[in-house]
Design brief:
GO terms for molecular function: DNA binding. The protein has 142 residues and is mainly α. The protein is built from 8 helices and no strands. Helix 6 crosses helix 7. The radius of gyration is 16 Å and the shape is elongated.
Length: 142
Amino acid sequence: MGSSEAIGRRLVEARAGLSQRSAAKLLGIGVNTLGRYENGGTSPDVAWLLEVAAPRLRVSPHWLIFGDPPEGVDATADGELDVKLLERSLAETRAAAAGRAKPLPTDREALVAALYYGHLARGSGSDPEADATFLQQLLAAV
């Protein structure tokens, strides 16, 4: 996932023409919360970016979270990345991290989910055992 500051810049860009107050209302959050997201003081939850912010701001979820598509990952025919696969990577990351003694911070969760998404998007998702091992290695590294 992009840094909090980078996501914040993309949120500002995505709300072009809308005041911060109007954008916060559209997104169902407080103005102060949006301000913290936009200045990088707080990282928004990945699920919120996927399910609320991107659709309501009418931007690509991948662009909002990561910026340009990573090298080696193809966009789908309509120019968007596979949101279902991104949701799967987030869900599997959360499930795998649930057993940890210390909860995984949101920014680390997003990083693991993004790396795992890249793994799955490159066609590596055909071996569930190898995928689970890869995900555990990612979690151990953060």
